[in-house]
Specification:
Low-confidence stretches: 1-15
Distance between the termini: 29 Å
Radius of gyration: 18 Å
Order of helices and strands: HHHHHH
Structural class: mainly alpha
Oligomer: single chain
């Protein structure tokens, strides 16, 4: 069945609760990972990096608030071991990795930026997926309000 055929079907539910898409998690992961890597080592990047992180935090916060308003069952989500592991990985990437490893040259900075970007991309996607999987099953297909 194609998209055009399902668009006219009254039984389809266009607003199904689902996790963040890969392209969105890749964009956020790339922004956060590269910004954190450059922010710690480049003095001239401080204000631009702080602005990028502020915009990312505000956008993710507003999207989370809007999502929870649309799907109240997200407030009742049970956290799983997968959520806890991925959240811990994100905390380690944002904190101790920044303090322990400070790159000396541009090659090391690029490698650190790529590793952080991939780590944040995977971490953000998997944390959100674990939250969606933990939402009550009976309400996943119907948006509230």
């Amino acid at each position: 069945m194609t998209t055009e055929e399902t668009a006219g079907n009254a039984e389809t539910k266009p607003h199904k609760l689902r996790s963040i898409s890969w392209w969105a998690s890749a964009l956020v992961g790339l922004l956060v990972g590269s910004t954190l890597a450059w922010l710690r080592t480049q003095r001239n990047f401080f204000f631009l990096g702080a602005a990028i992180l502020a915009v990312v935090i505000i956008v993710v916060g507003v999207r989370t608030i809007r999502r929870r308003a649309r799907y109240p069952q997200m407030m009742k989500t049970k956290t799983s071991w997968a959520y806890n592991i991925w959240a811990l990985i994100l905390i380690i990437l944002a904190g101790p990795v920044q303090l322990v490893y400070v790159p000396d040259d541009i090659n090391e900075l690029t490698i650190k930026s790529l590793i952080l970007s991939v780590g944040f991309c995977l971490g953000i996607h998997e944390v959100d997926r674990a939250l969606v999987k933990g939402a009550p099953i009976e309400d996943k297909d119907e948006p509230q309000g």
